[in-house]
Specification:
Blueprint (H helix, E strand, L loop, with lengths): L2 H25 L23 H14 L5 E4 L11 E6 L2 E7 L24 H4 L10 E3 L8 E3 L2 H17 L8 E5 L6 H14 L2 E3 L1 H5 L4 H7 L16 E5 L3 H4 L4 H8 L4 E6 L11 E4 L5 H14 L5 H7 L5 E3 L8 H4 L8 H5 L3 E4 L4 E4 L25 E5 L5 E6 H9 L4 H8 L3 H12 L4 E5 L9 H15 L6 E4 L10 H4 L8 E3 L1 H8 L2 H8 L2 H5 L7 H16 L21 E5 L3 H4 L3 H10 L2 E6 L11 E4 L8 E3 L9 E3 L14 H16 L9 E3 L9 E3 L3 H5 L4 H6 L1
Parallel strand pairs: 6-19, 7-18, 8-9, 8-16, 9-10, 16-17, 19-20, 20-21
Antiparallel strand pairs: 1-2, 2-3, 4-5, 4-21, 11-15, 12-13, 14-15, 22-23, 24-25
Helix pairs in contact: 4-25, 5-25, 7-17, 10-15, 10-16, 10-17, 15-16
Amino acid sequence: MTKRMVSEKRRDFLKFSGVTAAMVASQGSLFASTKVIKAETGLENYPNKSYTEDMYRNEFSFIRGNVEDTGYAYHCVNCQGNCAWEVWSNNGVVTRENQSAKYPSINPKIPDFNPRGCNKGVQHSQVMYEKDRILYPMKRVGKRGEGKWKRLSWDEAATDVAQNIWNVMTDPAKGPSRLMVHAGTGLLTEGRRGGPLRFSTMLGSSRIYPSSYLGDMFSGAAVAYGEGNVGCTYDFMYQVDTAIFWGGNPSVSRIPDAHFVWEGKYNGAKVIVITPEFNASAKSADVWIPIKPGSDNILAASVIHEIITQKMYKPEFMKIFTDLPFLVNVETKKLLRRSEVEVPKKAEDKEKYEEQFYCMNALTDKIALMPGTEGDGGKSIRLRELNISPELEGEWSVDLADGSSVTVTTAFELLKANIEPFSAENTKDKTGVHPDTVKMLANDIAKPKVVSITTGFSLNKYFNGIMTVWNIASICGLTGRLGPYGGLNTENEFQLTGLDVLAGFSGKYAARFGSGFIGEFVFGDGMKTFDKYFSDEDVKRAQNGMGKEEYMKIIKEMIALGKEGKANDASHHGNIVKPWWEPEVCLVIADSKFRRNKGQEYREAFFKKISYFAYCDYRMSETAVYSDLLLPAKSHYEVWDLRTSPGYHRFTNLAQPIANMKPVGEAMDEWSMMALIAQKLEEIANKPENIDKAKVKDDKKYAKEGFHDLSIVHKEFTNMDDESQMEM
């Protein structure tokens, strides 16, 4: 088509448009009907006026049922939301679940928590009736993972588990240390989880820490605060001046709580998201800072550099709440301890002196012991009451108990020296963040009144994750971010008093607690797969200052300490029993370890060391299919339960199953399941040929009396033994 033709067609179109517009303007709508319909409500034009209303009423009546057809629940499969839901049924089958909107308002100036829930949880009524639901106890009859099963009765299944537990515990060469009873992240509620944990504690079996094997421990926060789980409930976000989400995406991962963030934005908060990807939270934020993956620790260091060089830190806060005024030996770079300056008068004071540290007191120009340290036995930690005003900067000479003297400075002086290379200009190529953005971020943290920095769970999973969160915690320490002024928000927790009694025996028994990460790394021959899949360049890219060879050397040294039983020597408290255990018989509940540890290498290494693997869950999974025995658990809508922590909100939830719900297969709740296994174990122990072996010897760390009496194991589990009856 030529330009002339295009031009003529365009003119024709404009002419026609002009004529049409003129007709509409002069005569009204060109296509208007000549018949005018009088319509006040519109209902008179519908012959069956009640059809739509009746349809919805009938549907609602069908799915809602009667009062006895209603229950309450939540969805806590590796989810920390703890959201209250209402569940309805018809003829014993769940037909509907709805977010409950019954959370009370905590403050008229803050939006309430209603409703809580997400589209992941709302599918649970479908999941509980899906074809992958485990309906009956089943025993493997084919090759492991082949999917060939034989249906068993509960009596047969519980006896099978109990017999394997008996065999390993009464074997003099094995014993309780070779048994694992573990509940994973598919079962996070305190009520249901208490059953397997109580059973594990009673037998002195091993179990591992889920947050550790998931990489969710917030180790950097633990180094800084002595506790990894620190922070606030999400309603706090409504009243902050700056809300930073570092490696997080609350609109997706914290769906029930995210509304506080965005309501806070319209209440005046500045929302900043720091992630490599432009995610759902970044699009709604005031500022998105795209960062190169794995360089978060470098960005945090550059923020520290900016805060220090521009003197945006809070000296008085640092003196009171941080270790930055503590004195450090310039030569050794170690904290100056009381044990170096004074000789203890009593032998029992030696350990205390090792845990007491000094500052330089500006009021006396002499060193002074800082209160609040682990070795401190003073009644007050208030510096003003103790007439102490610590120096933050300087260098001094201190006389030691052996007659020598050393030059000391403050931890703050060392921080300034160490942070010098990490200016915004020097780090921009590694982080991908412009120096002006670093300066903006530092100002947005240091200058407002209330600033919250929420770290995502992803940060902990990097090689340098501990340094990243530690650096972010240091930013909070420099700028006075604590309590009502905000600070680091990893994952707050709370728990109702007394729930720990469900899982314990008041010190009579103790489980063998091990590290999740180290345990799975060692048990799955992780060193081999690490060497196979990670190059020197991969390790260096983690920005932790080490290459592959040095990194592997450190890991080997760590493993050797655990294997030789020397890990406890490094603890001043003597509280590290063993970082991992090597079980032979496993009873695992709701922990899909072969999905978490992807690849056949881990699975193959695991089953070379395991002789028996019983698995309990309500759905078939990558782990369930490889087990020797499957135990069907009830789903969230079928059980009584209780959930408190973590503290994303302030409420405890009680799960109440629907009264007339039809059972799904032969599923059983965890408390009944453990009680049945304990009953079968007690029956085995009381056989005439076994009674002499029923008292299984164990270290008094795990059995106060030096043994586990399997002949009364069911009575003890249900508190029906003579000792429990006397206490009651």
